[in-house]
Amino acid sequence: MNRFPPISLIGVPTDIGAGHRGALMGPDALRVADIDKVLRARGLEVADRGNLSGPVNPWLPPEDGYRHLDGVIEWNRLTMEAVYAELSEGRLPIMMGGDHCLATGSITAVARYCREQGRKLRILWLDAHTDFNTSELTPSGNIHGMPVACLCGHGPKGLTELGGSKPAIDPSMVRQIGIRSVDEGEKKFVHEAGLEVYDMRYIDEFGMKRAMEEALTGLDKNTHLHVSFDVDFLDPSIAPGVGTTVQGGPNYREAQLCMEMIADTGRMGSLDVVELNPAYDDHNRTAEVAVDLVESLFGKSTLIRG
Ligand SMILES: [Mn+2]
């Protein structure tokens, strides 16, 4: 018997916040890799809500430190509404990006839902990057490098106040895992904000097991666990299909252990799978690895446990 509510797949096909084109094909690549069938085979009820429809990516240079700000806000508003609607019906939304800017919308929705329900929120941010840039710190203006900052109240009004109040979350709710590429100014800001980061140096020294034990400390029955899985979290040798590959990420077994330990908590209530970029992939193998890991998040383990 599984212990998960019914799942809703929400495709958000845009690369409006990214520095490379192609993540807009992510939702369909996950479907081609049978994300729905794999979850149904685990006994879960799955509804695929199809893709949201928003503005096309105009592919313009940044203005005042932000690239495509209006379009990013619109896509995030759509994402927030879709994710909130599913949570309100007692379902578990899987937001299939799309680039990582969309986590602003999905997590704003999750945070609002948790506030209304009087539930605690823990966010696991699995990523090569901290995504804690601001318009002053960013070298590129790409908003997919800013969602954690926006959620914590640092950024343009249209994103920080997406849910009506600011900030959407407190940095103390966030645990970042797999980090190995942080911009210079961003580094200082991450420390000032007090984000809890388990970077690759930590994982090298103490192992994924210890990192996850720490990151999952303090969860209780009243905690909603949100997982924001940026596929570039993974080492590029197993996941080449992303726009921003960074060497030295978790290998297949480390990533599986990470997902299995999340599953063991039984607390996951929402999930983002983002930055999958089929334009950089090899015969959809990154999508297949991502689906494999999603399966582990929902309780598939290598060995049968008693
Ligand atoms: Mn990211």
Structure description:
The chain is of the alpha/beta class. The chain has a single domain (7-297), classed as Ureohydrolase domain (Arginase, Chain A), CATH 3.40.800.10. Helix content is 36%, strand content 16%. It has helices spanning 26-32, 35-40, 69-88, 103-117, 147-151, 157-160, 184-193, 200-215, 252-265, 285-297; strands spanning 7-12, 46-51, 92-97, 120-126, 174-179, 196-199, 223-230, 268-274. The chain has an 8-stranded parallel beta sheet, with helices on both faces. Helix 9 links the parallel strand 7 and strand 8 (268-274). The protein is globular. It starts with 6 loop residues before the first strand and ends in a 9-residue tail after the last helix. 54% of the residues are buried. The mean pLDDT is 96.
Explain briefly what this protein structure is:
The protein is of the alpha/beta class and 306 residues long. Helix content is 36%, strand content 16%.
State the shape: globular
Please bin the fraction of helical residues. 25-40%
Structural class: alpha/beta
Examine the coordinates and then state which fold CATH places here, giving the name of the CATH topology.
Arginase, Chain A
* Number of extended strands: 8
Q: How many alpha or pi helices?
A: 10
Task: Give me the strand/helix succession.
Answer: EHHEHEHEHHEHEHEHEH
Biggest beta-sheet profile: 8 strands, parallel
Per CATH, which architecture? 3-Layer(aba) Sandwich
What distance lies between the first and last C-alpha atoms, to the nearest angstrom? 13 Å
* Biggest sheet strand line-up: 2-1-3-8-7-4-5-6
Integer average pLDDT: 96
Rg, Å, rounded: 17 Å
Bound molecules: manganese (II) ion
Beta-strand proportion: 15-25%
**Domains counted in the coordinates: how many?**
1
Superfamily (CATH H level) name: Ureohydrolase domain
Return residue spans where pLDDT drops below 50 for at least 5 consecutive residues.
Answer: none
EC number: 3.5.3.1
Family: Belongs to the arginase family.
GO molecular function, one term: arginase activity
InterPro entries: Arginase, Ureohydrolase, Ureohydrolase_dom_sf, Ureohydrolase_Mn_BS
